[in-house]
Amino acid sequence: MDLHAKLQLGGTVPSWLCGGKVTKDLGEHFEVGFNALHHRLGYDDFPYAKQWVEKNRPVGVSHFLGWETLTHAKNPHYAGMGGSATPDFDSDGVGDIFSAATGTLNIWNGKGDNTFGPATAVDSDWAGFTRPIAGDFNGDGISDLMAVKKDSNTLHVWNGRGANNFTGAIELGPGWNPYGSTLMSLGDVNEDGKTDIGAVHSETGTLYVWNGKGGNQFGPADAIGSGWTGFTRPIAGDFNGDGIGDLMAVKKDTNTLHVWNGRGANNFTGAIELGPGWEPYGSTLMSLGDVNKDGKTDIGAVHSESGTLYVWNGKGGNKFGPATAISSGWTSRF
């Protein structure tokens, strides 16, 4: 790969290669292989390939290449979140809804037009775990689940296999008692292409980030900032469209929605107020990924009184469309 890129950039063709004469025709597909090897598998020993890819962005978008670029390229022109926090358990590129509040893990697969299929019951052994989160924690491109076991305060992961299937629970480590109720999947907040997680300490109100290393591994806790007890459980997504994970929560005393845009290196902007009127939605606020297939991150919530599920479609730049009522009967699910 690196030799091909070097020649494409003007390097001398060695005499032993095709008699010293080659056709220089690296196409858009070259970036797909580079993304897989570099950003997903961590190889970093082909500088000419990296130079060629970065020099020739943005690539054209076909049905296949556009998807690959959005999820793995870290391409500033077409990038989504480098490490995926999107709940997409059937790997169709559309965000799904999931819940284990009844003790059974259920998944509602998104259809791409703000609608969802019927509940798929996956596993009935979830009563002993905190509310699960979704992300690609092992780096295989398929959404996984993560939660804290209540009786032992140990963190567990269930790696996705596609088609709404998962491995058995894999124990990652103890000591998660202060974080279980606010555990969140952040996407990529340090721009290394891996999915990071975060949580707010229940006593101190300090937000912590654990940077993903791939393979279900995470770095040590990084304290980001205090003062989070005044907000509902944060959620994460790329709400301004810059490819870096952002945070979102409702301020409890004013019921206003706020966003903190990621800057990379585990840093965030100050709170940006988006608007009032979120009291009925704060406790069930969720980041859905893209559920209307426009490439923007959407959010959802269940109205606390009516039990109606609403979706707000993202417009980029921290903007969202009006609330779209999806269906009723969701109170017991969240």
TrEMBL record:
The keyword Cell membrane does not apply. InterPro entries: FG-GAP, Integrin_alpha_N. Keywords: Signal. It holds the Pfam family FG-GAP_3. The keyword Signal applies. PANTHER family: PROPROTEIN CONVERTASE P (PTHR44103:SF1). This is VCBS repeat-containing protein. It comes from Nonomuraea turkmeniaca.
